[in-house]
Prior knowledge:
The protein has 648 residues and is of the alpha/beta class. The chain is built from 21 helices and 18 strands. The protein has three domains: 1-67 and 179-303, P-loop containing nucleotide triphosphate hydrolases (Rossmann fold); 322-469, 3-Layer(aba) Sandwich (Rossmann fold); 530-643, no CATH class. The chain has helices spanning 42-50, 83-88, 92-107, 114-129, 132-145, 150-153, 163-175, 193-205, 217-223, 242-277, 283-295, 362-369, 404-411, 417-425, 443-457, 473-485, 497-503, 522-528, 530-555, 565-596, 606-643, and strands at residues 4-13, 16-26, 31-36, 57-62, 68-70, 181-185, 209-213, 226-231, 234-238, 322-333, 336-347, 350-356, 377-382, 388-391, 461-465, 489-493, 506-511, 514-518. The strands form four sheets. The chain has a six-stranded mixed sheet, with helices on both faces. Strand 17 (506-511) and strand 18 (514-518) form a beta hairpin. Helix 13 (404-411) crosses helix 14 (417-425) and helix 13 runs parallel beside helix 15 (443-457). The longest helix is centred in the last third of the chain and has 38 residues, at 606-643. The two termini are 56 Å apart.
Amino acid sequence: MTQLAFSGVGVDFGDTTLFSNVSFTVAPGERWGIVGRNGTGKTTLFRLLTGELDPTRGSIARAPGLRVSLLEQHRDYGAAKTVWEAAAGELAELLALEQSLVEQAANLAHDSSPRALAQYGEDLERFEREGGYAVTARIDAVLHGLEFDPAQARVTPLSALSGGELGRLGLARQLMTTADVLLLDEPTNHLDLETTRWLEQYLAASDRTVLLVSHDRAFLTATVDHVLHLEGGTATPYAAGYTDFVAQRAERRLTQQRAFEQQQRTIAKESDYIARNIAGQNSKQAKGRRRRLERLPRLSPVIGADGTMALRLEVAERGGDQVMSAKNVSVGVGARTLVDRFSGTLERTGVLGIIGRNGSGKSTLLRALLGEHPTQGGDLRLGGSITAGYYRQDLSQVPLGRTLYDVIAGLRPKWERGQIQGHLGRFGFSGQDVLRRADSLSGGERARVALAILMLSRANLLVLDEPTNHLDVESIEALEDAIEAYDGTVILVSHDRALLRALTTRIWILHDRHVTEFAGGFAEWEDVSAERAHAAAVATAEEQALREVHERQRVAPTPKSDPRRELRLAQRELTETEAQVAELETQVARVVAALEDPALYTRPDGAATAHTLGAQLEALQRDLEAALERWTHATEQVEMRARSPFKP
């Protein structure tokens, strides 16, 4: 069965052809990665899929009744007032039923009349029939996975959220939709490492069809099983995951280049023959060859690096051996401490990766290091003769009210016009583009301008805060190559695991207000701290099960004291199993916290201790699952008897 089919699709905007001859089919459950340079038509492709835009040429077939959901459609939260209501989206009616059951359950404590019990029983049966326990727990799980507190989300107004939080809420709302096809446009932007891993696992467990645009190579590798590559004014489908796509693309390009070169040699040989014989005794043969040559379909050369950033990072002077020192440094925002009494040093050369959850203080620590944010205490300073170039996550280093030409001219007042235009040309801005104002640029274009500014700094310390946001894969690869060839020191905050694996030589982990140093790169950190990731996965699974338990608690009645023996026994069993579940929850949380502490993996016995704790966690998980089963049975017994207290 085919859900979507493109056949010879092309799109023109005025006299400009964006792409043409695009053909591919999508079957249920497939996960497609849509990749290509910025401006090749990825967003336009999504508009075609939703029906917002009609193709100029070709046709798009959709299965009857197919429902397609795009993230941008989920930024309008309708009548929702709280974060939880907004995330629930089309499931809001089920939410209203749940709230009614909570109120009815509370009222049964003082009104257990047959009418009240019958209404409660009827509504509860409907709630269970429509999967209420599982659905509301799933909403909680999605909110938790995207860094919201589910309980707090039920009372937090939408107006209290920041821009980044609203973006994550839009993603949560889309994941909760019942649409058949999800269209995700850069879903990992502004997600931290843990949240990105959670999203990978969520999509892997889903049986829905997914088409996603992403520049995150590790995310693509873990998520997609098909790739659509937009390049050269068309798109090529690959029935392969991202890693195999990269290999197949290289092989395809090599084959195309060989065929192109062979044809060029044939054309040159024929042209030479025609030129030598067109007026001689072989004129007839020469004219025949000329006609055949004119009719020959010309192969195009392989699309190479044209349009990719030509980024080169150089240092003006070497700088001292000690780049940075910190002694008992505390950093915070207002009264909240983000980093507490950190001490450490950073020596010259290499790439330091700083990782941690969103809101842990990574960007604030960078700003404090560069003197842009006050410390709460301690001594934090750059070394002698260290000059810093700063790539800001919000791209605020790009002045919005000026043209690109004026931005570069202000930094290099002695440069001639040709030098300024040449520099901007290295970053994909040519011709009249150099006269565009920065506030007219897309996110990807502003990011390239920010890198053009950074290149001019010639600093011996580069501080890069999420530099891959907004960049396409080819630009990220160019940035990766430039950092690798750089002769200075780099401090890198990023959620791009492929970039971290390729470049970092040391890692600082921000966790629970403390900085833990790991003397190795990110790839080594992933290997050493595998139990940490395992603990997070176990905790997530248990939280999902516990949410269903707690959801039953929310809607379960609290009956009046009743002398009948069976009800008393059922209530006693429920109380005992609740206590067992609570105790096991506490033990699981204690072991998970120990495994999540980065300091564990820097100790000589860290690996052995983590292995022991991992085995202990598995045993606790089994015990908790058994206790949850007993609790569920006991809850059902109490609910049944509480609904029918008048039966003998």
